[in-house]
Amino acid sequence: MEVDQPKAADRKIIVGIDFGTTYSGVAWAENRNPSRRTCITQWPVSSANKEGQSSDKVPKRMRYSRDNIEWGFSVPVNAPQHEVVEWFKLDLDPSTQAVGHNTSAEGVRSGRNTDELVTDLIAQLVEHLMYTLREKLGSGLVNSTPLQFVITITAIWSDLAKEKTKKACEQAMISAPEHHVHLVSEPEAAAIYALHDLDLDALDPGDTMVVVDAGGGTVDLISYTILSTKPILEVQEAAPGSGALCGSTFLNMRFSKFLQSKLGKEEGFDDEIVAEALDVFENKVKRQFAFNAEPDETYNIPVAGLANNKSLGISRGRFALKASDVHKIFEPVVLEVIRLVKDQITAGNVPVQAILLVGGFGSSNYLKERLRAAIDSSVRILQPPNAWQAIVQGAVLKGFALSSPDSTVVKVENRKARKHYGTEWSVRWDEKSPKSKERKILGSTVSENEPYIAAFVWTNPVSKGRIRTVRMTIYNDPLSRDAPLSRNDNVGILSIVEADVNHIPENQLRRRKGCDGQWYYELNCKIEAVYTSASTSDTLIYQSQRCKSLRDIVVAHGFTSALSPRQGYHPTPASILNFADFDLENTASTAATASSSSSSSASPYLDLPESPDSDAVTILFQILSPRNARTLLLYVWIACCDECKERLEHNDIQRLADEQTISKYERQALRAAVADEENFFWCTSDCGSGQIHDSGSAQPIVVCIKCNHRSCFRHGVNWHEDLSCDEYDRLQEDPEFRSYMELENERWEEAQAAQAAQEAQEEADLDVARRLEAEENAEIERQEAQDRRAREREREREQELERQGNQERQRELERERRRNQEMQRQLEQERHQRQREQNAAEERRKIVARRREEEAKSNATLRTTTKPCGGCGWAIEKRSGW
């Protein structure tokens, strides 16, 4: 599909970056020539060789060596695993942090946090991009042409993870020329590329298709219904996007565990063997494995250094990986993908005509055929060409649309809301106006081209001083099916936006008299929300002025992220009363730590009275220095009136205190408000950090944003590894209780032992068959030797008769020949008889082996579904949940 060319004065370079879990891709194009998009396929293997490896994408691996960074293909495949950092992208979102964090130890990261790792890798990608652009276009053109970056992100990520990704990108691109950074969700980018390349004549308005972006870490899904095909393809979301952690990375994890269990006890087995085996599995086995592969088909996996072992399938440094084992590795992950696809189809509640598979995992033949077998036959399963490049190519196409609406090739007209969004504000009620009942709920249709605007009225008594700030708290609920009318356990803070109205003259602030006879300030404000596939932005509007210099504080999954025009984006722990903010000396933090040691779930900071008295003052001066005590008392007294001891209102504090005091007070008040959230949790380690855990007990693992310590939200203790919360409760009641994981491991070991016994029996049967075959071959050779000797004797006799010329001898020879023929016929009959007996014996052996296999399966089923009766010992059926 062709697009219009922009004017020369608007020249830009559009760059798409697919920042995946295991691989990253980069593509670029000039907006003067949108149809000519270029994917970077040459990657550095060292600092000296910038184009030493050809590949559509580059591995997302890094190794730190002092101040040097090895990345991508420059990290050797056989590099020790304890030196390589990978899969760290998953750490950006606390919900997936455990998966990514467990893959690399702290020492590998050289003291760097996840944000710094992401920044380092993106910086390397941008550096190589700039090298490529200068090689292709020339330094002068590149340095004078603005760049527009479109970064793809996982659709199921939290708003915090998306903001952290954007911040890392902007920080990594400091050295780049003039540029702008935009985000787009991976499934939308993939859909734009896949849909724009489809035959439009085969599409009709009303058709619906599901786009499955199966990548390395996540599988994201989104459904689109076609609205029109001319002049451009216009679509709208048929259901809210969905996804889960079930990408091809988990195939690698399962293969690694399989290899450990199979060969881990062999002498010489180490991390280097695992790394080389994983490289072959990643680049060959996963891509070649097909749904119709024969179970006995094998794939050669290098295991250099391991001794030959026929029972394990090791020969000459190669391990024979059976297709049946690959099937066991693939199937659990593929089943999860199938479940996601079926759920997405159900959520759309409309007939689906096709499923588009994109991404690296999406190009798998096995995944395609399993979906074909699991989904209704009327639904077409499609794999567009270059499925691995679909996301990065779609990011470039999205960049064209953002740069110039006329360049749009696929327009997403409407989307489905992923969450419920709401506020807590008083609104003038007008029962005649339907606007009073308007709201955005999960599944509602939203458009990034049509912002959602809600009006509210901010009031404050004039007697308490003029209004200086207007603040709005935005809430969200991603779990409830119906939009809540008030806050509940599922509702959390999405963001807090605040605008400074000090610049507005007093005479321009509207006032009205209330029914109580008092005068009130009344400010009519609006909040504007824009929903895109990758972000949600809120803007406060007052008197037609958009408050750009507002402070936007995003609160999600344990972070409070402050965004201001001068300072930029600075994530800080969501804890309150940090003594460093009061400029206190070290003695204060020591006293605070001591006071928190009694309980892991209590606040690690000093618990102060609301109204200070003489006893409290005495205690403060005993545990703190005089300077620190006076500073802390100042903040306590700010909140209380010195005469009546009543707590002061926010406006009174602004009127009475100096600017510096107000700034510190508001910061601490905000943090205190966050800590009052029902799902606020203090880390159970000694780090002194607290955070909001939005999912509460539904997802009880809390990963500390400061020290990465894992705690249990439900019990307020360190996370109980290998035990669910219910199992932990049962363990407290019964010390002899065995967890599901322990029982599962025991069953797994029994299954491994049974499998080993079965393989040993199969090997013994093969030895018997090989011995019988050898005996049969020896018998055939012996018979052939006898036949040769008989023929030689016959020729000798014939020669003798010819010399003697005796007719009688000729007749005798004839009789001898007949006897020999008769003997040969008898021998042939005996040989056939032995062959029939051998075949019958072989058939009996096969029957015995098959009965043993069936008996083993029956016993395994019996162990799984029955248990021995405590009285008589007979097998009885297990009850549900036993």
UniProtKB/TrEMBL annotation:
Residues 663-725 form the IBR domain. Residues 775-882 are annotated as: Disordered. One of its GO terms (molecular function) is ATP-dependent protein folding chaperone. Gene3D superfamilies: 3.30.420.40, Actin, Chain A, domain 4 (3.90.640.10). InterPro entries: ATPase_NBD (IPR043129), Hsp_70_fam (IPR013126), IBR_dom (IPR002867). It comes from the Eukaryota. Keywords: ATP-binding, Metal-binding, Nucleotide-binding, Ubl conjugation pathway, Zinc, Zinc-finger. It holds the Pfam family IBR. Residues 775-857 have a biased composition (Basic and acidic residues). Residues 858-867 have a biased composition (Polar residues). This is IBR domain-containing protein. It comes from Gibberella intermedia (Bulb rot disease fungus).
